[in-house]
Amino acid sequence: MTNKVLYFVCVAVLAVQFASAAFGGVRQDDVEQSVETVLSRLTLEQKIGQTWQCLGREMVEPASGDMSGEKLKESFLAGVRAGRYGSVIGKWGVENYNAIQRAAMEGVGIPLLIGSDMIHSAVTTYPIPLALACSWDESLWERVAEAMAAESLLQGCNWTFTPMLDVALDARWGRIAEGGGCDPLLTGLMGAAMIRGLQGEDMTDGLHIAACAKHYVCYGASLGGRDYNAVELSDDTLRNTYLPPFKMAVDAGVATVMPAFHSYNGVPCSMNAYLLRDILRREMGFGGMTISDWEAVKELVKHGTAADEADAAAQAINAGMDMEMVSSCYAKNLATLVKEGRVSMKTLDDAVRNILRVKFRLGLFDHPEIDKTKVTAAVDPAANRALAREAAQKSIVLLKNEADTLPLTSGAKVALLGDVAASEWQMLGCWSTKDLSKFENATLLDGLKADGVDVVYTEAYTLTGRVDTVAIERAVAEADVVIAAFGDYWEKSGEGASSSKIELPGEQLEAVRTVKACGKPLVAVVFGGRPMAFPVLAELADAVVMAWNPGGCGGWGIADVLIGAAEPWGRLTVDIPRTTGVCPLFYSQTTTGRPVVIDKSNPFGRRFTSCYNDVEPSALYPFGFGLGYTTFAYSGERAEVCGDVVVFSADVTNTGSRKGSELVQVYVRDEVAKIARPRRELKGFKRVELEPGETRQVEIKVPVNSLGYFVQGRYVVEPGRFTAWIASDSDHGRAIRFSIK
Ligand code: BGC
Questions:
Q1: Would strands 660-670 and 720-727 be described as parallel, antiparallel, or unpaired?
Q2: Where would a tag sit more exposed on the chain, N or C end, judged by fewer CB atoms within 10 A?
């Protein structure tokens, strides 16, 4: 053995001994004790290191957006060994991930949390969350999240910043794409299912990752629907509308929570002790860690609530922010702040405890590295693409189907129009991995061809450009039916993509009118990451399909629904407005003293009601709405209070000629309360599959306790009169009454 080799062997042996000596005795099965053991051996600098999530792309050579395969900087690895970072952000690939964890274990002995935004895509691109929500399908949400967990490990991440639990009432807000829509219950159910899928029963099994509930809280209420904007909101509305999904996430065991960028009633969420300590920790019982949003601690200076970065660090950690993402206010200032007494050692220790606890829950001390063989064996790319196709099928919402235009008649000649119909890229969404080269993705054109449709594609127009009417006329002349793609590009929604207009951009209506003038049936497939206002399209098209951003396998999923191989399963989880000016528009608006009365025979009838002069404030398509290929009728709706549950039941009949499934929804209104309450609130739902002519009694049990609300910080369930609707959407149904004694 040469001297050099001998030297490296000695260093390696010493490193292993150091690692085990460093935290010998930490026990995965006694997390709290192990957290204390680790904490007691850390220096002040190492504790501060745990609170920093550094920016990954600066840690590789050359600096890159995707760090897998890139060379890790020696200075970075030295920092990891020294315990300078508790976490890094980015996609590293398994090899780099393992190299980072090896360096950490050789050095300070504490593995890193390695996080990235695997929102609807890690390897396979699934539909955007808003689309997935429309499936109203907890099993699907959980399966997609579980598939994403293993795929995220393959990308070199043990932590993802999802689910987004921001109730979104305003279609102008671009981030409406990233969450479950406008309903607290549905958003919470989807979030909890995703947390179960991502984290599994046991996060130490090497196939699951830590989830992050974000953006805490009421980010979706930003003024004017403008991203990052301030939020002014009563405490009652905060508790009744925006907090419930986070409570459901905490109850589902979410490992981490990310406070939002904005200020709530003047106090930025990143330094809001009321939100982070009083509500999240004390009231909700959250025991995991909090991570700031990207540079949000530093942004406290721009908010004008911190004098400088040191002040920002002190305010954030004192308010309960455990880890800082990207900016380095903690790393640069905490040592001085602790010495000066502006941050107590206990506060710092508690933050580190919360961080270490997540690392133990993930089993990282025992298995810091990803077992690539195990994870690769667990990821079946074909099965995941099939899942993405199923997810697309179930996310699509059929909004109109005049004269049974859909499903397409077998053998019909189809003219397919519009740039998005043949664009692989435009099937993706705001958080796609965007790596089209490696994976098979399908356009709508591909999907129709794969399903055996006789289809001829002509671009004829782009969503934002000019319309070639001659090309449309030529294409339509040869066809029996026209399918045309409308809406907006996916880049127009998501973070930092709010819009002051949600109408169809460009000259799309010109394309609609040209097709209509040719006298052929028009199927409009609308793409986009937000509800758009398209009353003219809705009137002129024979069928309208809301396809959202359906993901890499979206083309197949949409085609399956258009030909009837899959039934239209999706139901809206947002209201579709008639025009931008009515935003925010949501079905659960508070009752007023002058409710809207729309009397078509009397144009002045709406005067002095809570209305507009020029447009109905009702939805073009309401929350919960979506057609199938058959029809259903409801009868015998009843509500019976049995102890601590209300049993809602109805006889649902399939009145059409095809087998199909109906999403039975229960809405409730509290008729007399201490504060004005929503005109309707979703309280439960159940899907039922029925043969033609079949009737089934559907029963939905709702806990009496869930019929209450917060007033002045207190949750009350008041005896009294309630109205309920058991219906297929939030605007219809026969009102039935019941009372709580
Ligand atoms: C977004 C978060 C995201 C984070 C990390 C921020 O700009 O608001 O949702 O998780 O970046 O990429």
A1: antiparallel
A2: C
